[in-house]
Write a structure and sequence with these properties.
This protein has 429 residues and is an alpha+beta fold. Helix content is 18%, strand content 49%. It has seven helices and 16 strands. A hairpin with a 6-residue loop joins strand 5 and strand 6 (215-227). The longest helix has 14 residues, at 60-73. It is elongated.
């Protein structure tokens, strides 16, 4: 039986008086039992009892050792198995604890009064393998180029080799003004013994005085992450959709994979590949298949107080036209992305820098710069600060974001500058 006391060895005292205590002082009980250790080295019940005392007094490492010794002497010691599973759980070894608890529930000699307790424990522990959370955002800000209009008010056309200046209509010029963003994100995680499932879905919308530039974004991504002692890899797939001015503009389907080398140092290199099928609903001639291959490094210096986290990635980009007559044809280029995170005051400051270079492989249009092949050089900087808040008894975060994007090109139509600043709150539930 699980809780029966076997006949003690001659050299080991009778443990019945210690087992009979209903609400013992666990530290005192451990002290009393420690006196007999040299006499009870071959007694499984002794190590199960002293292990229980250590577990209940939160001495987890000694408890683990004592209970392991109890099970080495008698692998079927049910009392030791119950406490050993609890010790594994409290040490963070969730799946080992679940496996042992499941074996306990299958024992034919399990006392009826213990079965409901072990079933309840099993259900509670399994709850730690799944997590569903939601995150809401409310932001207000100002954008000096809501519609991403070109910097120049005039475009030079070259239909016959001679330049002709064309003045852009007012609606194509940069529109500035305040805006409000509302977003909702759901995150679901499921742990397995050797991998992790992640599923993230987000919907985000912006409203401003320029209704034609208002948008609604939807994105959903699933990823499978597997971590091993010397490597970490991730596979992901997802979809994205953008509505602009109340009309569907863009949809994308993507797949990606990354591989990171684990090591003793604080910086770990990784490799990544990704591809996205791009569909432009109103201009299918712009459809393309974009691919990326990159190498990067993640540095976590958090072991030093106030030290930053840093990552960098450099990638080769390729965007293949889905039809032969796409303006500019295929596009090739590269991208560099830098990311810093630093603890500041009560929150965290994040800075991101991105540099992208894309070059068309065919003339963009005979009407622009005499049919020159378009090139685009863009760079962006983003500063984000978030700090925990406690408002009306709710855990929230203060968000402050500043962003600037600048794009240069040999074609004036594609030279743009955009600067935004926003402030808001975020809360999880």
């Amino acid at each position: 039986m699980l809780c029966s006391v076997p006949t003690a060895m001659a050299a080991c005292p009778d443990l019945s008086p210690y087992l009979a205590q209903s609400d013992p002082d666990w530290l005192e009980l451990e002290r009393q039992l420690a006196v007999f250790m040299s006499e009870c080295l071959d007694n499984s019940e002794y190590f199960a009892l002293i292990g229980a005392a250590q577990l209940n007094s939160k001495q987890l490492s000694p408890a683990l050792e004592s209970l392991e010794r109890a099970l080495l002497i008698d692998p079927d010691n049910g009392a030791a198995q119950i406490d050993y599973a609890q010790t594994l759980f409290e040490l963070g070894q969730l799946f080992s604890a679940l496996e042992l608890n499941a074996r306990l529930l299958q024992r034919t000699d399990l006392p009826e009064q213990l079965k409901p307790l072990l079933e309840q424990r099993h259900t509670s522990w399994r709850g730690f393998t799944r997590d569903l959370s939601f995150e809401a955002q409310l932001l207000t800000g100002y954008d000096d180029n809501l519609n991403e209009g070109p910097d120049s008010a005039e475009i030079k056309l070259t239909p016959s080799g001679e330049p002709i200046l064309l003045t852009l209509s007012p609606e194509l010029k940069p529109q500035s003004g305040p805006y409000v963003i509302v977003g909702l994100t759901s995150r679901y995680q499921q742990l397995a013994p050797e991998h992790l499932h992640n599923w993230t879905t987000q919907i985000r919308g912006r409203q401003s005085e320029d209704s034609k530039s208002d948008f609604v974004q939807f994105a959903s991504q699933y990823s499978l992450v597997r971590s091993e002692s010397k490597k970490n890899w991730q596979l992901s797939t997802g979809i994205a959709h953008l509505q602009l001015g109340g009309r569907s503009l863009f949809s994308g389907v993507e797949a990606a994979a990354s591989y990171q080398i684990q090591g003793a140092g604080s910086c770990k290199p990784y490799y990544t590949v990704a591809t996205q099928q791009q569909m432009f609903h109103n201009q299918r001639s712009l459809d393309g298949l974009e691919s990326k291959a990159g190498i990067g490094i993640n540095c976590d210096l958090a072991a030093t107080r106030g030290a930053p986290q840093f990552s960098s990635e450099v990638s080769i980009l390729s965007n293949k036209a889905r039809i032969n007559n796409r303006l500019g044809g295929d596009r090739e280029g590269w991208q560099l992305h830098l990311d810093w995170r630093y603890r500041v005051f009560r929150g965290e400051l994040r800075a991101e820098l991105s540099f992208t270079d894309l070059n068309d492989q065919q003339p963009y249009s005979q009407f622009l710069e005499n049919g020159a092949e378009r090139w685009q050089h863009s760079n962006s900087i983003s500063l984000q600060y978030h700090e925990p808040l406690r408002v009306f008894g709710k855990d929230m975060e203060l968000l402050v974001n500043v962003y600037q994007h600048r794009q240069q090109s040999n074609l004036a139509l594609f030279r743009t500058t955009d600067t935004t600043a926003e402030i808001g709150v975020q809360w999880q539930f």
